[in-house]
Task: structure prediction
Amino acid sequence: MDDRVASRLDGKDHTLWGPAAEEEASQRLGWMDLFEDSRELVPQIEGLRAELAAEGISRVVLAGMGGSSLAPEVIAATVGCPLTVLDSTDPEMVGNVLAAGVADTVLVVSSKSGSTVETDSQRRVFEQAFNDAGLDAASRIVVVTDPGSPLEQSAREAGYRRVFTADPTVGGRYSALTAFGLVPTGLAGVDIAALLDDAEETREVLATDDPGNPGLQLGAAMAGTDPLRNKLVFSDEDSGLVGFGGWAEQLIAESTGKDGTGVLPVVVDAGDPETLSAADDLLQIRLVADPEDREAPDANDASDADSVPPLRSEHAVEVFGSLGAQLLLWEFATAVAGRILGINPFDQPDVEAAKTAARGLLDATPKSKRPDTVIGTVEVTGPDDVVNGPAGSPDDLGQVLAAVAQLVPAHGYLAVQAYLDRVGYPELEVLRAALATLSGRPVTFGWGPRFLHSTGQYHKGGTPEGVFLQVTADSDLDLDIPGRPFTFGQLLAAQAAGDASVLREHGRPVVRLHLTERTDGIGQLLRAAHGTQGSDGA
Result:
């Protein structure tokens, strides 16, 4: 405790991460003392919610990416308040959200920079939908952004209903308890004052230079092992925090995955292959209920006795607490982990590369590339080990998946990246556990393009041991983006291709499975994952 990390972090000491990080850190520590500003928002948000309700507006749609969408989704889902999170450029997902109707809808447009292409595109198509329905679009749009951003200026000029500006010294992935987390969830009906109460109580504990400080303990568990256990296997053991691992995934991966190091969250279900592994590079993170709220297990009930695999204590950490407490705890612990790793936890130097590549593809004349092989309605592109293995071209997708699994190095990981409608096709996530079984290694699953604002930083800047499986698809539906020379489908395709090109430039193996027909292709993939594909490759 001699270096007083806890009290210095609570005091916003920007020198904690070394000289190279000082400039960035000096502008990114507002999340440690945001409570006064956040509490001032509570009556404003509650007042706006009452106004909207009086007008019959009950559906809240959030257009945002990364830190602007992940925390609100967890907060609303945990509390049980309806919030539609639109964090995709997939034309089917956008189209389905629009198809639900806009008569009772308010759109929250959330972007720190004010220039996020996905969020701007979503705003444009909703604004047109409001106008087409004969509604005053400006009265149905609420904006959350940083002061001085292009979005703030354009929103005020357009006369949008409300413009909330957040503290610019809080980075996106640390913004859960700022306007970015509070406005959409408060409008959806969450008791945001109670959320802040829980977090503020936790801050008092985190500020103490004491060996029992949970933030220091968790940060040390994340980044202080020797050798480094750089994959954090997140499993939920009835914590009551819905989807919390997805929020923590962005916070940790984007904060630590740089300079060739970092820790990678691997979000799994209880009982998945990774939770049974004692590999020396895995740390089990179990999100559990408060011990005081748990029922004592029945020693005679085998299902209770076997519910948590018996792992050595150095392999596992149990974490519990209220949602507000957990949000601040993990932010604090991640900053501590960054200090231990010797990196700047507040920048994201490799995120822009994929965005630049996507913009370049949108501006260029499209070039078609022949797939290496075609199986049913799935086009396969990738390294020779996958498309031309020992037996020549694969006959079915099961062989492709097995070959992809074999590419993962001894201490590596596999990342599945699905550029499809995550609400429409949640069953695709079975690929994760199937590939973890095949490879014997941890597997992450990300929906594109939202993971580009999350684990995308780790993929390029973290430990260079990843293998990447892209799943893309044609769609019968496409949507124009008003005022833009490209469609949602073209934007999504450019984002996938741009990220793949940057990964390859970094020497990362990339395999692409492109579904020329969504329904049939997804069926093929699912049957391959379950090991029941037919002789026709389906």
Notes: Confidence is low (pLDDT under 50) at residues 297-312, 532-538.
